[in-house]
Amino acid sequence: MTGSDHSGPDATTERRSRYRRGLSSEWLAAAYLLVHGYRIVARRYRASAGEIDLIAARGTLVAFVEVKRRRDAVAAEAAITQLQRHRIQRAADVFVARHPRFRAHERRFDVIFILPWRWPRHIEGGL
């Protein structure tokens, strides 16, 4: 086995661990939004254009939220690429097209950073 082979049991264990950390981070971000008056409309919304971690609504606003869990804020901010922003925006267009009740809502693209031993950091319009 070479150093570039990632198909072994350690790779599977690491994938599962990352998946669980992702789920817990999204749960924490959703709880944060709920406490701040949002209603969670969808989690891990998948469209052919891409995936959105959380979709939340408050009043006439619908927020498409990307959740990033990293060791520090610099790494979290660096993890958001232009390609990712574009995919989330296209997936949001699909979501609104499939859910007409949100067509008149204001759209916002947010980020929630989950950092160790800190409260979630919500950046409204951060995408």
Quickly describe the structure.
It contains 3 helices and 5 strands, in the order H-E-E-E-H-H-E-E.
Structure commentary:
The protein is of the alpha+beta class and 127 residues long. The chain has one domain (9-123): Trna Endonuclease, Chain: A, domain 1 (3-Layer(aba) Sandwich). The protein contains three helices and five strands, in the order αβββααββ. It has helices spanning 9-35, 73-78, 82-98; strands spanning 39-47, 50-58, 61-69, 106-114, 121-123. Strand 1 (39-47) and strand 2 form a beta hairpin. The longest helix has 27 residues, at 9-35. The radius of gyration is 16 Å and the shape is globular. The model has no long low-confidence stretch (mean pLDDT 86).
Question: CATH topology, which one?
Answer: Trna Endonuclease, Chain: A, domain 1
Q: Identify the strand order in the major beta sheet.
A: 1-2-3-4-5
As for the number of domains, it is 1
Number of helices: 3
Question: Major beta sheet, specifics?
Answer: 5 strands, mixed
The helix-strand sequence is: HEEEHHEE
- Strand proportion: 25-35%
Rg is 16 Å
Q: Helical content, roughly? A: 25-40%
Shape: globular
Terminal-residue CA separation:
40 Å
Low-pLDDT regions? none
Oligomeric category? single chain
Q: What's the overall average pLDDT, rounded?
A: 86
CATH class identity:
Alpha Beta
Write the layout of secondary structure elements.
Elements: H1 9-35, E1 39-47, E2 50-58, E3 61-69, H2 73-78, H3 82-98, E4 106-114, E5 121-123
Parallel strand pairs: 3-4
Antiparallel strand pairs: 1-2, 2-3, 4-5
